[in-house]
C-alpha cells in the first residue's frame, strides 16, 4: 500500500538525468571558452614576439646604417663614380667589415648570423672588437636565423627612389639595409628595411 514512492523515484531519476545533461553542456561551453582564451593568449604572445623582433631589427638596421654613413662616399675623390660597387680584394679578404672605408664597399654584403664590423656575432661583442663578459651575452642561438643585407646603387638625381642601370652613375647613391629572419617552417621573413640616400659633394678647390 506504500507504492506512492514509485512516482517519487521516477521524478528523482528524471531530475538527475537533466542535471547530467546540463553538466555536459556546461563542460562543452567551458572547453570552447578555454580554447578561445588560449588562442587569444597565443595570438598575444606572437604579437609580443613580433614586436620584440621588430624593435631589435630596427636597432640593428639603424646601427649598420650609421656605420655606413660614417665612411667616405668613394675610395678615390678624383674618380668618385665607381661602376662596379663592392669591396676591393684586400678589404673583403678578412671576411669582416673592418676595412670597409667607403660606401660602395658595403654593396652585396650579407651576414648570417649578424655580426659587428669586426665579425663578432651580435649579442656577444662589445662593439670595439672584443667579446663582452659572458654574463651579458644574448640568449644562446638567438640570432642564428637572423641575417643582415646591404645593397648600394646609384639613383636618379631627379628622383632618389629610382635606381639607375648598372652602367649609369650619378652623384647620388641609395643604401638599403635589410634585416631578415629565416624561419624553418614559415620561410624567410623581412623584419625591416631602411633606405638612405647619400650625395657626393666635390672637394673645395
Write the element-wise H/E pattern from the N-terminal end onward: HHEEEE
What ranges have pLDDT less than 50 throughout 5 or more consecutive residues?
A: none
Share in β-strands: 15-25%
Work out the radius of gyration. 31 Å
Structural class: alpha+beta
- Amino-to-carboxy terminus distance: 128 Å
The order of strands across the largest sheet is 1-2-3-4
Q: How can the largest sheet be summarized?
A: 4 strands, antiparallel
Mean pLDDT: 83
In DSSP terms (H or I, runs of 4 or more residues), the helix count works out at 2
Shape: elongated
Query: Using DSSP, what is the number of strands?
Result: 4
Structure description:
The protein is an alpha+beta fold. The protein has one domain (44-199). 34% of the residues lie in helices and 18% in strands. It has helices at 5-69, 89-92, and strands spanning 110-111, 146-154, 172-183, 187-199. It has a four-stranded antiparallel sheet with strand order 1-2-3-4, with helices on one face. The longest helix is centred in the N-terminal third of the chain and has 65 residues, at 5-69. The radius of gyration is 31 Å and the shape is elongated.
Secondary-structure topology with pairs:
Layout lengths: L4 H65 L19 H4 L17 E2 L34 E9 L17 E12 L3 E13 L6
Antiparallel strand pairs: 1-2, 2-3, 3-4
